[in-house]
Design a protein that fits this description.
Blueprint: E1 9-13, H1 20-29, E2 33-38, E3 52-55, H2 61-68, E4 73-76, H3 91-107, E5 114-120, H4 144-157, E6 168-173, E7 175-177, H5 183-193, E8 199-200, E9 206-207, E10 209-211, H6 212-225, E11 230-234, E12 240-241, H7 242-253, E13 261-262, H8 264-281, H9 289-296, H10 304-310, H11 318-327
Parallel strand pairs: 1-2, 1-4, 2-3, 4-5, 5-6, 6-11, 7-10, 8-13
Antiparallel strand pairs: 9-12
């Protein structure tokens, strides 16, 4: 623990996710006390024995009152994450989980000094040309996940505790990877490991990443030093092409980098045709149009403000980060 970091009572929601476990571990390591709010029973031994666990729902007032009692810092990670489906049936589920639940928690954050909200750089939309987003850039959230995260950001930035102090800090995270990686990057790992990945349009589109352990450090730094009502992008300070990311993963798994690339337009046409046929036959495809969009999207974001104002320095570079990630990933079919 740094000399300017006093011991705090912390609440973490969504603690079993990609960032949650590293964050809890880092808080405990620094001497803070930690309480978790989880919808489901947490496996014994998953967290240190001195971590307090409250089982309940973010829509239940009694649960929220218990979870937030005498809490100094709140780290709100619980969310419904991006899925590769445009299904309108999911819209209300996203709103209830990402917006309504956040509003409920904010109502009970009366004793909190800081409310750290984990958002996403997806709220910016895709980059055009060589543009790099920063905190002053206009947002263009596409999809239920980004849209609901942006809605929740507004409530967080306007939030105050019982003393009238602004407490909300929004961290727009680059794509998070590490030993608990999920979603599209986990699919990418499996495809590369099994030799089933090819580049699309040469893999020249850009991405912004950060390792899970650096996110944990960044979150505690924000709780310690950031002013309430502030917004930061949090990245590892680099902007990569998909090709650079894939090459780093290939080094970690001991494979040659893919040599082939497919043009997007013919691939999109083929996928549309295959999707129609698979739907008729009742077969699910390993890739669909939504996943293709994620694979070729370009999103380049600067985290310079967070580094400049709070002194954040990432500790994990791309190659070491993927080596650490691969140590804990199972590739069993």
């Amino acid at each position: 623990m740094s000399h300017d970091e006093k011991l705090k009572r912390c609440l973490v929601t969504g603690a079993t996710g990609v960032v949650g476990m590293p964050l809890v571990s880092e808080l405990i390591r620094r001497g803070h006390s930690v309480r978790l709010l989880s919808r489901h029973t947490v496996s014994k031994g998953q967290f240190p024995v001195d971590v307090e666990i409250v089982i309940g729902d973010l829509h239940d007032e009694k649960t929220l009152a218990t979870a937030t009692d005498s809490i100094d810092w709140i780290f709100h990670l619980a969310a419904k994450l991006h899925v590769n489906s445009p299904d309108d049936k999911l819209k209300d589920e996203y709103f209830q989980t990402n917006v309504a639940a956040t509003r409920n928690l904010l109502k009970f954050a009366t004793s909190a000094e800081k409310f750290i909200f984990f958002s996403t750089i997806s709220v910016y939309g895709k980059s055009e040309g060589n543009y790099i987003f920063d905190e002053t850039s206009a947002v263009s959230p596409a999809g239920f996940y980004a849209e609901t995260k942006f809605l929740a950001e507004k409530d967080v930035l306007a939030s105050r505790n019982s003393k009238g102090e602004q407490i909300g800090v929004v961290l727009r995270l680059g794509a998070v990877y590490g030993s608990r990686v999920k979603g599209n990057y986990l699919r990418l790992l499996h495809a590369i490991k099994k030799g089933r990945f090819v580049f699309v349009d040469g893999g020249t589109n850009r991405r912004t990443l950060i390792h899970q352990s650096d996110v944990a450090r960044a979150a505690i730094l924000a709780a310690t030093k950031a002013n309430g009502g502030t917004l930061y992008n949090v990245t590892d300070g680099r902007i990569y092409t998909v090709r650079e990311i894939v090459e780093a993963i290939c080094i970690a798994v001991g494979r040659r980098s893919p040599r082939f690339s497919l043009p997007r337009s013919p691939l999109q046409i083929a996928l549309n045709f295959a999707s129609a046929i698979s739907g008729f036959l009742g077969i699910s495809l390993p890739i669909n149009s939504e996943l293709l969009k994620k694979l070729v999207e370009d999103i380049a974001v600067s985290g310079e403000k967070f580094r400049r104002e709070l002194g954040f320095e990432p500790t994990v570079d791309l190659k070491d980060g993927w080596r650490e990630t691969l140590k804990n990933i199972s590739f069993d079919d």
